[in-house]
Amino acid sequence: MKYVFKVAETWGVQMNLTQMTWFSTWTFSALFWTSAVWAGLLMHL
After folding, report:
1. pLDDT tens-digit profile of 6-39?
2. Could you tell me the superkingdom of the organism this chain comes from (predicted)?
């Protein structure tokens, strides 16, 4: 388990703020659009 935390910590240090921001932005928009598409499909049923 310590190994996992060590890897996560190393990744956290290596990834800078810009990459984190881009990643979270893309993840959020992907989730948002997926939800929107599903909602649209359910509405049409």
Report:
1. 777 776 666 677 788 888 999 999 999 999 999 9
2. Bacteria
